[in-house]
């Protein structure tokens, strides 16, 4: 039996790749599972999709990153918690969710692929930010690792239904339904050392008015060239 086959509630397993991509593109955070010195370890980190690859980045001094850069088998889990399903019984109560599991081995990116990976990760964290920040310093790039996992062996499970109460419970007095979980950004809080008069960047303003696209004027883009200063 393939290890990506869901055992329980198999009807919730989804094989559509676009639905996996939707989850990976919206989640921002995943959990990397690996085995270090014979012990399981699960580490939360930013994940970003680039086509058929899942990217992560971090310090060259990071133990788990150095470990997965050597291409041992890993398992990545990415989850969106969408709602509480309030059933009439505790037994039937559950969550709406979308969750993915990806198996594979990471590859360390270098050169142009590393720069592109970093751009994607920066934009994934805060869309529009790349055009606003200075180019990477050479020293910063040297201290950063970018790793890529092929999105080839994966499973996706989607719970988007309703309470599944039996007839006796439906006939009873208990309420049942779904309570969606929202995700929104709060009011930005300026850094304690922010100089007076520095306005909010467009990338942050766009978080506060979702739906309005950020247009990046190529003339404003600081560029990808690195600086050693
Ligand atoms: C939402 C989120 C996003 C993150 N994004 C990134 C990212 O993009 N890049 C990045 O490098 N790091 C990210 N981190 C931090 C990441 O989880 C690690 O802490 C970091 O990579 C440093 O790992 P390390 O080399 O110290 O871990 P290791 O040295 O491998 O860890 C040693 C031990 O430290 C403990 N540990 C390490 N990290 C954590 C943790 N997060 N929580 C609790 N215990 C921990 C564990 O007990 C572990 O066994 C993110 C964390 C969160 C929660």
Structural commentary:
With 229 residues, the chain is an alpha+beta fold. The chain is 21% helix and 31% strand. It is built from six helices and eleven strands. It has helices at 17-27, 63-69, 111-125, 138-142, 167-170, 202-208, and strands at residues 13-14, 29-36, 39-46, 48-50, 53-59, 74-86, 94-104, 107-108, 144-150, 153-159, 177-180. Strands 1, 2, 3, 6, 7, 10 and 11 form a seven-stranded antiparallel sheet that branches. Strands 4-5-9-8 form a four-stranded antiparallel sheet, sandwiched between helices. Strand 4 (48-50) and strand 5 form a beta hairpin. It is globular. The N and C termini lie far apart (55 Å). The model is unreliable at 216-223 (pLDDT under 50). The site of flavin-adenine dinucleotide has 12 residues, from strand 3, strand 5 and helix 2.
Q: What is the gist of this entry?
A:
The protein is built from six helices and eleven strands. The strands form two sheets. Strands 1, 2, 3, 6, 7, 10 and 11 form a seven-stranded antiparallel beta sheet that branches.
Distance between the termini: 55 Å
User: Helix count, per DSSP?
Assistant: 6
Q: Order of helices and strands, N to C?
A: EHEEEEHEEEHHEEHEH
Shape estimate: globular
Taking Cα atoms only, what radius of gyration do you get, to the nearest Å? 21 Å
Characterize the main sheet: 7 strands, antiparallel
Which consecutive residue ranges, at least 5 long each, have pLDDT under 50?
216-223
Assembly type of the chains comes to: single chain
Q: Which tags fit this structure?
A:
alpha+beta; four-stranded antiparallel beta sheet; 229 residues; 6 helices; binds flavin-adenine dinucleotide; seven-stranded antiparallel beta sheet
């Amino acid at each position: 039996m393939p290890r990506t086959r869901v055992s329980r509630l198999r009807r919730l397993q989804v094989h559509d790749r676009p639905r996996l991509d939707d989850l990976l593109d919206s989640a921002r955070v995943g959990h990397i599972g690996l085995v270090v010195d014979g012990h399981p370890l699960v580490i939360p980190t930013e994940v970003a999709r680039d086509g058929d690859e899942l990217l992560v980045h971090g310090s060259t001094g990071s133990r788990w990153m150095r470990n997965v850069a050597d291409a041992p088998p890993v398992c990545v889990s990415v989850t969106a918690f969408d709602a509480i399903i309030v059933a009439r019984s505790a037994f039937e109560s559950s969550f709406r969710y979308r969750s993915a599991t990806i198996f594979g081995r990471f590859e360390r990116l270098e050169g142009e692929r590393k720069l592109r990976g970093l751009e994607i990760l920066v934009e994934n964290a805060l869309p529009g930010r790349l055009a606003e920040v200075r180019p990477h310093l050479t020293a910063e790039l040297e201290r950063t690792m970018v790793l890529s996992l092929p999105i080839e062996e994966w499973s996706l499970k989607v719970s988007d239904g309703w309470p599944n109460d039996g007839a006796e419970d439906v006939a009873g007095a208990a309420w049942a339904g779904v309570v969606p979980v929202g995700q929104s950004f709060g009011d930005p809080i300026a850094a304690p050392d922010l100089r007076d008069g520095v306005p909010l960047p467009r990338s942050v303003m766009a978080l506060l008015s979702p739906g309005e696209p950020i247009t990046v004027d190529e003339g404003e883009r600081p560029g990808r060239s690195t600086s050693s200063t």
